[in-house]
């Protein structure tokens, strides 16, 4: 299912021109209407694509090349600016179409609220779904200043939908006291670290279907300053690559993924979209079987 509302512009490196024969589909969600600090992640998908031009096609980590992969970059969804409710509906409708076509969805955000309708759609297809959430922030609020549609709420919504014990959170180092209490009591909650607890949890998931959502701000601002809510004390890009490779090398059945909250305006060096593009390459090669 091609995007009739796709933008005209650059695509992720080596993207196929053929949707029908592609196993995976990359799509952008340029939405940043509900952020609580700095906007700008609507420009993330386009900048990640631009940065991908500097990548080698070959991953020495996985000994695979994207030249041997089959994926299609559909472009960005045309979202009604300033209308988060309708934007989430558009995202959900599109992802349901991808899943109906047996495509592996790879989403580029955009703020983290865009992950919520994707999780809903994937959960409809895989009722035993587990969620792996890698982020600096817990995203477990019920609302932000009275607004339930906020980039601080998607994982709380996912926990309500799927059951908190199907949600695995890693790298969390920011949130309200209530969020940390909720996480510790209701999800598999692993603050501060990513790779070590991930290595412990993955064998427990067996061959379950898993959706992976990664917020770029799990990285320390020294590694990724181009994000809306940067948070000191994060992990390195190598640690995040290690986490992706741990998931890729496990028995879990990854059925979709996204990378969100790249806000390139805050990073004139462009190191944030450069890191993000490499992460997408590794997820594409590691997760899409």
TrEMBL record:
EC number: 3.5.3.11
Keywords: Hydrolase, Manganese, Metal-binding
GO molecular function: agmatinase activity; metal ion binding
CDD domains, A to Z: Agmatinase-like_2
The protein's required cofactors: Mn(2+)
Residues that coordinate or bind Mn(2+): 112, 135, 137, 139, 215, 217
Keyword Cytoplasm: no
GO biological process: putrescine biosynthetic process from arginine, via agmatine
Record InterPro entries: Agmatinase-rel, Ureohydrolase, Ureohydrolase_dom_sf, Ureohydrolase_Mn_BS
Residues of the signal peptide: none
Domain of life: Bacteria
Keyword Hydrolase on entry: yes
Family: Belongs to the arginase family. Agmatinase subfamily.
Listed PANTHER family: ARGINASE/AGMATINASE, GUANIDINO ACID HYDROLASE, MITOCHONDRIAL
Stated name of the protein: Agmatinase
Gene (UniProt): speB
């Amino acid at each position: 299912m091609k995007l009739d509302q796709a933008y005209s512009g650059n695509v992720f490196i080596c993207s196929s021109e053929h949707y029908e024969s592609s196993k995976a589909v990359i799509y952008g969600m340029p939405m940043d209407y509900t952020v609580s600090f700095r906007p700008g992640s609507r420009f993330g998908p386009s900048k990640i694509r631009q940065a991908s031009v500097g990548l080698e096609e070959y991953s020495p980590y996985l000994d695979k090349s994207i030249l041997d992969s089959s994926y299609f970059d559909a472009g960005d969804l045309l979202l009604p600016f300033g209308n988060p409710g309708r934007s989430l509906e558009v995202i959900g409708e599109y992802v349901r179409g991808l899943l109906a076509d047996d495509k592996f969805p790879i989403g580029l955000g955009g703020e983290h609220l865009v992950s919520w309708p994707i999780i809903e759609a994937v959960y409809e297809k895989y009722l035993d779904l587990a969620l792996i959430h890698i982020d600096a922030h817990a995203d477990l609020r019920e609302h932000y200043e009275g607004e339930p549609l906020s980039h601080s709420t998607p994982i709380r919504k996912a926990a309500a939908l799927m059951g908190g014990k199907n949600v695995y959170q890693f790298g969390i180092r920011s949130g309200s006291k209530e969020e940390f209490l909720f996480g510790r009591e209701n999800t598999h909650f692993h603050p501060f670290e990513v790779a070590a607890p991930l290595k412990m949890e993955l064998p427990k998931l067996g061959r379950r279907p898993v959706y992976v959502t990664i917020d770029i701000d799990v990285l320390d601002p020294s590694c990724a300053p181009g994000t809306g809510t940067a948070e000191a004390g994060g992990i390195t890009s190598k640690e995040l690559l290690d986490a992706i490779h741990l998931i890729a090398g496990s028995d879990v059945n990854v059925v979709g993924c996204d990378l969100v909250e790249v806000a390139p305006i805050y990073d004139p060096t462009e190191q944030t979209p450069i890191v993000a593009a490499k992460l997408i390459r590794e997820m594409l090669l590691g997760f899409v079987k």
